[in-house]
Amino acid sequence: MTMRGHLNPENPTPEAVEVWEVTEQILLAGLREHELADQLRFQLAFANAITQSMDEGVYALDGAGRITFVNPAAEQMLGWQSAELLGQAAEIVGPVQEAAGSQALVVDSPVRGVLPSGVTYRTEYAVFHRRDLSSFPVAYSAAPIITDGAVMGAVVAFRDLSELERLQQAQEEYLTLVSHDLRTPLTVILAHAQWLQQLGQQRPTEREAKSVEAILESGGHMTRMIQDLLDRSRLEAGRTVAHGVPVDLVEVFTRSVAQNITPVERARLQVDAVGQLPLVADSSQIERVIVNLLSNALKYSPPECAVRIRLFRSAQDAVLSVADQGVGIDAEDLMRLFEKHYRARTAGATVGSGLGLYGSRLIVEANGGQIWAESAVGVGSTFWVSLPLSDA
Fold first, then answer.
1. Percentage of the chain lying above the pLDDT 70 cut
2. Disulfide-capable partner of 239 in 202, 211, 234, 271 (CB 3.0 to 4.6 Å)?
3. Full-model pTM
4. For the segment 266-280, what is each residue's pLDDT rounded down to a tens digit?
5. Alpha-carbon gap, residue 351 to 348, rounded angstroms
6. What is the CATH number assigned to the segment(s) 162-240?
7. How far, in Å, CA of 52 to CA of 72, rounded?
8. What does the alpha-carbon distance between residue 191 and residue 186 come to, in Å, rounded to a whole number?
């Protein structure tokens, strides 16, 4: 019995070959689809395992702002079960704002705002609330989920800052205690030095005058260092808020010099100031910035060189500039000058912590202004502060 040609593997017909090829392609496609499905299941399981094991809280929203996913860390921090949150509006979590002991949802929440804008939002401090309506500080980011060019939802990742706040509070309390203990003997030393200076004004010897001046100068420097410690601690903890009141920048500058700069150092200052520069700012904070900039300029300039100060109007801002004749700062250092703990390499052996400019930046920004520097190695540096005028 002879088999029909298209069933004979030794002598297949063209039709049979075509059928076999198509069948092979279908089988291979099926295998590839199965492999891809396995890979997809693995990737989804792997991604789910990552979010499930993260210490950060993660939840996702759909395009309407409803919660579609919550990881275990978010459940624990928020006090909700995942099933209870699914389908709820994003505002059930927050962020919230607190005022006068009450809580209210933030109007136009940045989390929901990611959906129409498609732009990632990040903040280092916000307040979320738990199921029991208690609140806790967080840092969070909200990023859009984009598919085929369209925003399909958003994913929010947050971390609880409560422990960090407790540590910062403990640090501030410690620094407050230490600064008090340091100030007490320092106040006595400065008071006696001032008394000796007044007593010796009748017929002081050169050595006596220099000794008293050295005590006053070093004591003033220590006082500023102690205040800097407190200011930086509060600023970094986000506890220092600028209490703006009407002030005149020229008056604040004059008072800063009179109370914090020694007579010998004052003789090196060349001041060019307009009549008035009205601001709404925290005068004690601005005074700290002025003293820091003047102290740096005097410290990094040769003793025989003057420090030039200008106070003037520029458009809608009051501007303070402090120019020294020191060693200067190269371009690479200049870019990082206002970072925490950073010191320019040209500072050399000059005493300093590298924290003053960082603290100054935080203060100026808290008062709605800007601070920057211009410099060249071997020429000197000019530091600028601009603050919004209240009469502009």
1. 74
2. 234
3. 0.51
4. 899 999 998 899 999
5. 9
6. 1.10.287
7. 6
8. 8
